[in-house]
Amino acid sequence: MVVESAQGSGAAAGQDMLAQEFVRFSVDSGVLRFGEFKTKAGRLSPYFFNAGLFDDGAKLGKLAEFYAKRLLESGIEFDMIFGPAYKGIPLAAAVAIELARLGRNVPFAYNRKEAKDHGEGGTLVGAALQGRVLIVDDVMSAGTAARESIAIIRAAGATPHAVALALDRQEKATENGQDVAHSAVQYVRQQLGLQVCAVAKLADLLQYLNVKGDGALAADHARVLAYRERYGVDEG
Length: 236
Fold this sequence. Notes:
- This protein is of the alpha/beta class.
- It contains 7 helices and 10 strands.
- The strands form 3 sheets. It has a 6-stranded mixed beta sheet, sandwiched between helices. Strands 1-2 form a two-stranded antiparallel ribbon. The chain has a two-stranded antiparallel ribbon with strand order 8-9.
- A hairpin with a 5-residue loop joins strand 1 and strand 2.
- Helix 1 crosses helix 6.
- The longest helix has 18 residues.
- The two termini are 14 Å apart.
């Protein structure tokens, strides 16, 4: 099942107002930057999204608000939240807090990279993994983190059900060093059978740059569009 972005009231045709607000917030926070950045796949990307720079209480709280609003409007049903180490840990906690504030109280858990050999031991912290589990992360480059989370959740006897992301880059994944026709998000949806909910997509970023397209942002729009044309996936 593909979860489409809901349209905000009063939005222009095809414009997702929540996504536009999120892109603007990310740019203003310095989390979404433009220039030349090497991706894990070795590509030179004209933009870089670093969720680790949502690094104070106000920014993290606002980020969680975007996740929670998108999740609630998506209609995705889930019983608890899982945050994969490391960036997923504060995200899962913050999103759980915001969902509770909005009237949807769910438990959450996260994993350690290394097993603890004292105290309660093990690699899992928080609520016991059970039911339909929502994985919360920032972006998805190759789907590796999602597969690791799925394995942890299944090993605990729970059901990996959906993934929530801040940004869907909508670009081709790589396998064995070669570009493939699908993105990591498409792989998780189509091959692993999980629903995916993103606060914003590359298409939303392009729309933001187009609307704000003067001076430096106009040049950024041209570079991001060229990157999309070269590495973008067919969403049809």
